[in-house]
Amino acid sequence: MSAAPIYEVRNVTKSYGSVHALQDASLALHAGEVIGLVGDNGAGKSTLVKALSGVHQPTSGQIFLDGVERSWKSPHEAIEAGIETLYQDSGLAPQLSVGANVFLGREVTRPGILGKMGFLAQKQMDAKAHAELERVGIAVPASNRSIDQLSGGQRQAVAIGRAVAWAKKVIILDEPTNHLGARQAGEVLEVIKSARDMGLGVIFISHTLPHVLQVTDRVVVLRLGRVVRDAPTSEFDAESLLGTITGLIESPAEPLEEEL
Ligand SMILES: Nc1ncnc2c1ncn2[C@@H]1O[C@H](COP(=O)(O)OP(=O)(O)OP(=O)(O)O)[C@@H](O)[C@H]1O
Ligand SMILES: [Mg+2]
């Protein structure tokens, strides 16, 4: 793991009117590292994701990519810079094929005059999509099948595969194992590990704490919009992580209130 963070937010605050969704949140992600971002419903996780992925501009605070301060004006800018995000709802186009979805927004046109007329190199995209998904460890029936012919778990796998395949530096996964069976969830965790092994920085959001403990190197805990703990995963077990999320455990040094 390199010493300097690949992606960093410092003191980010985001308010929606009078709702302080995020207050003074900081986080540093390194290449080849998986950070688990956890917290109760409404803790501010997706709000932080949206700041990191250029969906929202923070009310205040700074964002650094490779040590350079950035201010995303759109998700497209963040994507161009190498940051891929899987949002809480996956954003696949159900009528299009797996291949077309993997290449959504990055379509390859056919060579020559046909390409200039806007004809797409569909077979090439399907084959490349298949190869890319395979590379990141995702087995999908056939890339020319449309998304609405896949199971929920397979759709989710395509969405994750697409993000990992395109990510150049950072991949952010907002609850990617939701609605998945045990086996598919296990596959997603394997994909996260292979993304880390490729040298990407990964932010993994989940309410399934055993998954977080299994796959992350660090855990950042948000409560009511604030980072209340940022520590190596080895410092947590399921109980202490839950306690930190709910506020039952204030910090590792302090005993539980009942024991005072
Ligand atoms: N567009 C919005 N307008 C107003 N308030 C919002 C908006 N989006 C989120 N919020 C509020 O900001 C707070 C943080 O929400 P956020 O979606 O970041 O939580 P979360 O940690 O992702 O929760 P969950 O686990 O349920 O996905 C909540 O109080 C939520 O109601
Ligand atoms: Mg959320």
Write the layout of secondary structure elements.
Layout: E1 7-16, E2 19-29, E3 34-38, H1 45-52, E4 60-65, E5 68-70, H2 75-80, E6 83-86, H3 98-102, H4 112-116, H5 122-135, H6 152-166, E7 170-174, H7 182-197, E8 201-205, H8 209-215, E9 218-223, E10 226-232, H9 238-246
Parallel strand pairs: 3-8, 3-9, 6-7, 7-8
Antiparallel strand pairs: 1-2, 1-4, 4-5, 9-10
Helix pairs in contact: 5-6, 6-7
Bound molecules: adenosine-5'-triphosphate and magnesium ion.
Would you kindly provide a written description of the structure presented here, covering whatever features stand out?
This protein is of the alpha/beta class. It has a single domain (7-93, 162-259), classed as Rossmann fold (3-Layer(aba) Sandwich). The chain is 33% helix and 24% strand. The chain contains 9 helices and 10 strands. The protein has helices spanning 45-52, 75-80, 98-102, 112-116, 122-135, 152-166, 182-197, 209-215, 238-246, and strands at 7-16, 19-29, 34-38, 60-65, 68-70, 83-86, 170-174, 201-205, 218-223, 226-232. The strands form 2 sheets. A 6-stranded mixed sheet has the order 6-7-8-3-9-10, with helices on both faces. A hairpin with a 2-residue loop joins strand 4 and strand 5 (68-70). Helix 5 (122-135) crosses helix 6 (152-166) and helix 6 (152-166) packs parallel to helix 7. The chain starts with 6 loop residues before the first strand and ends in a 14-residue tail after the last helix. The mean pLDDT is 88.
